[in-house]
Amino acid sequence: MERRTALRYLSAGALAAGLGACGRTPDDGRVVLRFWAMGREGEVVQQLIPAFERLHPGVKVDVQQLPWTAAHEKLLTAYAGESMPDLFQLGNTWVTELQALQAIEPLDAYVAASPTLDPRDYFGGIWNTNVVGGRLFGVPWYVDTRVMFYNPELLARAGYRELPATWEGWMQAMRAVKKLVGPDKYVVLLPHEEFAPLLVLALQQPEELLRDGGRYGNFRSAGFHKALQLYADMYAEKLAPIERVSNVYHEFGIEYVSFYISGPWNLGEFRRRVPPAKQHLWATALMPGPQGPAASLAGGSSLAVASSSRHKQEAWQLVEFLSQVDTAAQFNRLTGNLPPRRSNWHDPALAGDPQARPFRIQLENVRPEPKVPEWENILAELRVMGERVAHGEIGVAAAAAELDAKTDRILEKRRWLLAREARA
Amino acid sequence: MNGALPSAQRAAWCFVAPALLAIGVFFFLPVAAALVMSLTDFDIYALADLRNLRFVGLRNYAELLQTPLFWRALGNTFYFVIVGVPLSIAASLGAALLLDARVTWLKGLFRTAYFAPVVTSLVAVAVIWRYILHTRYGMLNYALSWFGIDPLDWLGDPHWSMPAIILFAVWKNFGYNMIILLAGLQSIPRDLYEAADIDGAGGWAQFRFVTWPMLGPTLLMVSILSMSGYFQLFAEPYVMTQGGPVQSTVSVLYFMYEQGFKWWNLGVASAVAFVLFAIMFAITLLQLRVARGIDA
């Protein structure tokens, strides 16, 4: 009985899907471009589409919004199910993975022929995250790097006029703040569900995170050891709270925490969610580095064209339109996301914003993460290891060794493929 | 007579053929495909090009048994089942007995209220439970403070995360079994209680010697259903803790989901599915054996 109902639903579903497909073909003969974008960007980008459609009367853009948490799975499932959109937004750390699947189109020829898109105008480190094996697979849409959000007023009370630039100075400043706030409050927020803070500390060290061309983990290096040790110390000295913090803006206001390593989206969030009377309690600064300012992560989203698309030319036109300086400026006003082109940063709205300035400086010094398709998986292991170290469950040296062992196992298939390639 | 049977059989086969076909295509075929997949290293590379697929025999299974996280997930799942199932059945039985009692007022209201969590969206109630379980602002810790208990970091402390998940799951699910048990209670003939009354049995003795044995088959069914449901723990940690803190709420199914749909290691994920199947099959057999032993 149950199976028969299931069958009936299936056939009904197939019918509905067929009807839906019919409904989607526009009567006016325009080309329909399917565009997937994530989260807030997916919502906001719809406001930019009418201008594009006016410029290209033969094209109709169908924007579908995906939640960030499901985006990665959804893209892979769409690829497996051969239902990829024509173009889509993707986290720039996924470029290698989708390139390995041959799911995205190389864009070098399009860029070379483009009158408006100038690669030299882009921040180099960010542009580079989209290059795999010498070819370009995505165009940066907006950028993400990490700086320090901190409470300048509390820091001043602890005797510091500005955030120290070195790890050593930063730790001393945090200890001074801890003395002020007492045992029930903390200083720095390092959320367990985020891999970025630990990753940023690791990227500040000169060593590569994977060695031998991405064949093995390199977490036993002296540099990673120092980064993980610093992370562990912040918990051991009770500078970082072990419990989950659900509303960082509120906690900043009551001085429960006063340092937070975070990204550009929080500029808007801090402005919006910290009460007006407490707006002076937050500011941004460059991340302190081992011996002074260092590289930070080169994150952000890119726009990519699917290899399976039958409308690549039109898809590229949309990529080009969204990358124009004026469109990017409008996008920045709508979302607060930071533009990847230097030209946009001459805009007084950005150039005159003191809280955005550390991002501008940091963007000139960002470092792509290792370009292996397994990187997301390795990052997840990194996050868990950071959490275990924070809970005092495992020592720093043992954690690094275990992380290497796990990484080596994840990369086993890659080593086999590379060896086979070398033989052939 | 002899000639008639085959034609009757043929007719019977014709009638069941569509159902068999559907079961074959939608059930046995995927299971067989998953079994084959569990013997390969199917991953995103194989998804891109099938020439990247390797047949690895039982390596997925062998490596699984050497993966600490798998054992941890198994341990977490057993913890959840061993504590959660009896607790859930006890809660269901308690609620069913209260609803069945003659003195209870507003039975319809309570029945609806106790059943409501079963039909509400898990994601919505998870949001509320995360507030209830919050270390500094949560209601639960506030209530505990009346008894002089220090605040517990329910979702942040690896020792308390699983109890928190169990509490949440029991609250969410007990209403379902309660309805089944209530039906079981109401089908117990009232004259048995009258006879027990005449023999001088008190409330406890009536429960022990009338209700409990009469409810036996229902309880067996409820326990098998709950156990197989609880072994498939996934949604609660997925929405509440994402397997954390420190992997203390990673269940076998959550582990399988991450391997399969997050990292696309479908070979490993299939192997996990078969191991989980073997475990659940063995435990259900054991349960039936025990139940038969009690009956005999």
Structure write-up:
The complex is a heterodimer of chains A (424) and B (296). Chain A has 424 residues and is α/β, with parallel strands linked by helices. Chain A has 2 domains: 26-144 and 298-351, Periplasmic binding protein-like II (D-Maltodextrin-Binding Protein, domain 2); 147-297 and 370-423, Periplasmic binding protein-like II (D-Maltodextrin-Binding Protein, domain 2, 3-Layer(aba) Sandwich), CATH 3.40.190.10. Chain A is 48% helix and 14% strand. Chain A has helices at 2-24, 39-44, 49-55, 68-80, 95-100, 108-113, 124-128, 152-157, 167-181, 196-203, 222-236, 248-253, 265-273, 312-323, 325-335, 348-351, 357-363, 375-390, 396-410, 412-423, and strands at residues 31-38, 59-66, 87-91, 131-132, 135-136, 139-144, 147-150, 188-189, 210-211, 216-217, 259-262, 283-285, 296-297, 299-305, 366-367. Chain A has a 5-stranded mixed β-sheet. In chain A, strands 8-11-7-12 form a 4-stranded mixed β-sheet. In chain A, strands 4-5 form a two-stranded antiparallel sheet. In chain A, β4 (131-132) and β5 form a beta hairpin. The radius of gyration of chain A is 23 Å and the shape is globular. Chain B contains 13 helices and no strands. Chain B is 76% helix and 0% strand. Chain B is globular and about 75 Å long. Chain B has helices spanning 4-37, 44-48, 59-65, 68-100, 107-119, 122-132, 139-145, 158-186, 190-198, 203-231, 235-240, 252-262, 266-295.
